[in-house]
Write a structure and sequence with these properties.
Keywords: Signal. InterPro entries: 6-hairpin_glycosidase_sf, 6hp_glycosidase-like_sf. This protein is an alpha+beta fold. The chain has 17 helices and 30 strands. Helix 4 packs across helix 7 and helix 9 packs parallel to helix 12.
């Protein structure tokens, strides 16, 4: 680096760095020039919708994360050999998994949680408000001091905190991902090889989205999907310690290791800081959700969750599908003026997309003495500094003595247990043994959706592991001795019953699964979708991992084989998504990434299996590479789901290069993407078509 470290900001005014950046007025699209990177692929992958769906994107990028570095490393790759600027090395699969899938996932999270402004500002988070009142200081001053405290805990220099951040307390349902003003790509710091760090890398002011085009609605799928991304990355970043003098990662041996002046929290200074910011956002979000966003079916208005004290039989109190936010008009840091329940239904997708992340975060915050599988690095984070520890009453095996607390462990447990109980009480139909996709607040619906039921099983698998004290996060496949809690046993019962329902009721004669089941009528007879197959495979594999019952793995293998036979287009080398259509949404992309991962890890042929050609690892890897190469990146600079990319995936900035695509791939730099000022690095809807000759 020629001049300054790339993270160093040009001012130490952290208050402004956390707040001041105005949104600009709507813009018109500019004409896009043909750029290098186009291929002779036999497909076209045009974008069909340029809007941003928070739930779908954050779900997809969670699967991309797990299908990234953890997958590649688990298959034997030494991550140190990866170089973002050496495309397709050491192999194309290694590069796609270890660089693209992983980094796309991380950067999209930061777009939502730190840059775009897509939600409510952390400056008005419940814990920020409480700390401000206690200290009798302004919210912005307290938040700035809090960021200093978090930086100190990980050995991160105050002057390196990013400028003009918009840390979100809770995220909105969607918006327009086009930038609302010119992205600042001026030189901030130069390297010796003519590459440089652009200003927007350290100052986020020019990366805001247009607030007038945001869907200012709170849906559990959206803020839950973002929570999932935050929890997975926080667990990764805070799962170890590092030395202060050399910034080298070390394994935590005790929860007091950080008392050594040369040892700090986090796997590195920079990653530790991001882990702390994510945890601060989660902590505030959970308090807001628990205290303000649950809905009482009896009172027909918003209520507070009761967690371990909650009894669904006394009246359902649950997360409704949609709450409209009326802001106070402050463009820089909007505050809630009013919350209006617009859709009181409980949707299964909303519930499992909250259960999964709350389970992941439970594994990070768990302080129960009975849990012998705790990571000391996590215990060090929640020992009172920088985050408060939980009251002893909330850590024993007796729920009757629990107390209300706003510490991270307790508030997360309240949300986790209430959502779990509601999935059981409001969505599980005891008579048929399956989850219904909807409850209107008075009664269950009649439809079982195969995709939603399958992912509910995966969320329950992670819940069971977390509540029973087993490793979650990247280690969620590891064996360990669990606590055998009543909640864990019930989760296993639900998983097995739903798995049996899929096997007994949803599998058709052609080996595919039906899209759904109508109670009182039977399986749906419309053309099966790819999404339904992916959900069933995901769910049955979850059942196998949770129970070790081989029949579930074998059923998943057979559905995978039928799926590949029915949906794979050999000529175009992509999966069809339905009858005569190839329409990819973030949910489809995320589910496909997840299934290809578990196929490589759990369903591939072993010596004890009857060999299935499409479950040979080489074949699965080829499908994985084709999916990312042809659909995510796309066949040309204007096509594909990935709207743009950051320099972490090789598209570095070079003085004098105006191409907007310095690595020559099919994904433009952010400022060179669609629209007048470019577009954020997120996923868009596309439709795959044969290329016209």
């Amino acid at each position: 680096m020629g001049k300054k470290p790339w993270k160093v900001m040009t001012t130490t005014a952290v208050i402004s760095s956390l707040l001041l950046a105005s949104a600009c007025s709507p813009t018109n699209e500019a004409s896009e020039k043909k750029q290098k990177g186009e291929t002779s692929a036999n497909i076209s992958v045009p974008v069909t919708d340029y809007s941003f769906d928070t739930a779908g994107n954050m779900f997809a990028y969670s699967e991309f994360e797990l299908s990234g570095e953890p997958l590649a490393e688990g298959l034997g790759l030494d991550l140190d050999v990866l170089d973002a600027r050496k495309m397709d090395k050491p192999t194309k699969f290694d590069y796609i998994a270890g660089i693209e899938s992983y980094e796309y996932s991380e950067e999209a999270m930061y777009e939502v949680t730190e840059k775009s402004g897509l939600g409510l500002h952390l400056i008005y988070g419940p814990m920020t408000e409480q700390q401000a009142q206690k200290a009798q200081k302004s919210n912005d001053e307290v938040l700035a001091e809090r960021f200093y405290q978090l930086a100190d805990s990980v050995g991160y220099a105050h002057e390196e905190i990013f400028r003009n951040m918009f840390p979100t307390m809770i995220e909105y349902a969607g918006g327009d991902p086009h930038y609302a003003q010119k992205v600042d790509t001026d030189v901030y710091a130069e390297n010796n090889d003519k590459t440089y760090v652009p200003v927007y890398q350290v100052d986020f002011q020019s990366l805001r989205w247009d607030r007038s085009k945001m869907e200012k609605r709170l849906t559990p799928s959206a803020y839950g999907g973002t929570f999932l991304k935050q929890a997975l990355w926080a667990g990764d970043f805070l799962g170890g310690l590092h030395t202060v003098d050399k910034d080298e990662e070390i394994e935590a041996k005790t929860k007091n290791d950080d008392q050594d002046p040369n040892i700090a929290l986090g796997v590195s200074s920079a990653d530790g800081m991001q882990g702390m910011i994510l945890t601060e956002e989660i902590w505030n979000k959970l308090n807001f959700v628990r205290d303000h966003l649950f809905y009482s079916a009896k009172q027909q208005w918003l209520a507070k969750a009761a967690g371990s004290q909650y009894n669904p039989q006394s009246g359902w109190v649950y997360l409704p599908h949609e709450i409209e936010v009326i802001e106070d008009g402050n463009e820089l840091a909007p505050k809630v003026k009013q919350l209006i329940v617009k859709d009181k239904r409980s949707l299964l997708q909303d519930q499992w997309l909250m259960l999964w992340p709350a389970s992941e975060f439970y594994g990070v915050t768990d302080q129960r003495p009975d849990n012998k599988n705790q990571n000391p690095a996590f215990l060090a984070v929640f020992d009172g500094s920088p985050y408060p520890s939980a009251p002893k009453e909330n850590l024993d095996q007796n729920p009757t003595n629990d107390v209300v607390s706003n510490d991270p462990y307790s508030v997360n447990r309240d949300v986790l247990l209430q959502v779990f109980k509601n999935i059981d009480a409001m969505h599980f139909n005891q008579e048929v043994g399956a989850f219904v996709e909807e409850n209107n607040g008075s009664a269950q619906g009649k439809r079982v959706d195969t995709f939603q039921a399958g992912y509910t099983m995966e969320a329950l698998r992670i819940f069971e592991r977390a509540i029973d004290g087993l490793p979650v996060g990247y280690a969620s496949g590891e064996d360990a001795q669990g606590l055998g809690t009543p909640e864990g046993k019930r989760a296993l019962e639900l998983i097995k019953k739903q798995a049996d329902f899929i096997m007994n009721e949803l599998i058709r004669e052609d080996g595919l699964v039906a899209n759904g089941w109508i109670i009182g009528q039977g399986p749906e007879t419309d053309e099966p979708t790819l999404l339904a197959q992916l959900g069933a495979i995901r769910g049955l594999t979850a059942a196998f991992l949770a129970t070790k019952d081989e029949q579930y793995r074998e059923a998943a293998r057979k559905i995978y084989e039928a799926m590949d036979k029915h949906f794979w287009d050999q000529k175009l080398r992509v999966y069809k998504t339905g009858k005569n259509e190839m329409k990819y949404t973030p949910f489809v992309a995320g589910a496909l990434s997840g299934v290809l991962r578990i196929a490589l890890n759990n369903l591939n042929n072993t010596d004890s299996d009857q060999p299935v050609k499409v479950l040979e690892r080489e074949t699965i890897i080829s499908r994985y590479v084709d999916f990312y190469d042809r659909i995510i990146d796309g066949p040309s600079i204007k096509e594909g789901m990935q709207a743009s990319e950051f320099w972490d995936t090789g598209d570095v900035y070079i003085k004098g290069d105006k191409s907007g695509n310095t690595d020559g791939d099919n994904v433009p730099q952010v400022q060179a993407g669609h629209g007048k000022y470019g577009i954020a690095p997120i996923l868009l809807n596309v439709e795959v078509k044969p290329k016209k000759e």
